[in-house]
Write a structure and sequence with these properties.
Helix content: 55-70%
Shape: globular
Radius of gyration: 20 Å
Number of strands: 5
Distance between the termini: 63 Å
Bound molecules: zinc ion
Largest sheet: 3 strands, mixed
């Protein structure tokens, strides 16, 4: 079967099976990949990160991540995830959750946090991207774009095939998320951290501390993939009553959890 026929058949099949409903927000999303495929990419990328960075030996950081990670995983409703959590020793200020539940936080980001609930917020936000399968959604749109490219330029069939083949890893785990993905992850993350027993107000406190231009540069890496502005903080405040209601129902309330003893956190 030539490539165009293959893609047409693929598109026809996709039209039948290619949608999914996002947990918590119930948004209908395009979904032309399988979670098995995405989770496989996650496992691959995770082992690359673990080979590239040392695991942190900071007992406080490791215990806080293990504790809030497990609490959030327990309420994330993702049976097909094989959860793993690691603090990577590096001054990078960033964190991520790969498809399938592989969560990494750089020690440089925790250096800027006041307490465990702020860590829970960041971790819950990253887990929200994975639970909402934002990576799979991007791969799916990439497939459709490639299909469009093939149909208008049949001379470029091989290039298009290469593009489709090469799309997976970058789209699933590497590229920054869109604004709408960010808003959705903020809402889902807020709900998850509250269900896990962390005071959801820590989320806004964390972002507000870095919302001025001067302090935003401290969060350089996180900001490049998760831009934060007044709109974002306003949206989180709007969603706060939903999160508060979940927090009230949480059985094991931890409040703000432990306060980190490092000296570099901004008050
Ligand atoms: Zn995000």
């Amino acid at each position: 079967m030539n490539l165009v026929k293959y893609l047409l058949a693929f598109a026809a099949a996709a039209a039948v099976v290619g949608c999914r409903s996002v947990p918590i927000t119930d948004r209908t999303q395009l979904m032309l990949t399988t979670s098995e495929y995405e989770n496989g990419l996650g496992v691959e990328a995770y082992s690359e990160y673990k080979a590239q960075y040392k695991a942190s030996t900071n007992a406080e950081y490791n215990q806080a991540l293990a504790r809030c990670g497990k609490a959030i995983a327990d309420v994330a409703d993702a049976e097909d995830f094989q959860w793993e959590f690691i603090v990577l020793e590096d001054e990078t200020q960033n964190a991520f959750c790969l498809p399938g539940g592989k969560v990494a936080v750089y020690s440089g980001l925790i250096d800027l946090m006041n307490n465990e609930a702020e860590l829970a917020f960041v971790v819950a936000h990253e887990i929200a991207h994975a639970v909402a399968r934002h990576g799979g959604e991007r791969i799916s749109w990439g497939y459709l774009q490639s299909l469009g490219g093939v149909l208008v330029a049949t001379g470029l069939q091989n290039d298009a095939a290469d593009t489709i083949y090469g799309l997976g890893t970058d789209l699933a785990v590497m590229l920054p998320f869109s604004r709408s993905n960010e808003s959705e992850a903020d809402l889902i993350g807020l709900i998850l951290m509250a269900k896990a027993g962390y005071d959801p107000h820590a989320s806004v406190q964390f972002w507000t501390r870095f919302s001025s231009d001067a302090s935003a540069s401290l969060l350089g890496n996180l900001m490049s993939t998760h831009p934060c502005d007044a709109d974002r903080i306003a949206a989180m405040n709007e969603n706060m009553p939903l999160a508060e209601a979940e927090y009230q129902k949480a059985r094991d309330k931890k409040g703000y959890g432990i306060t980190f003893t490092h000296k570099s956190a901004k008050k």
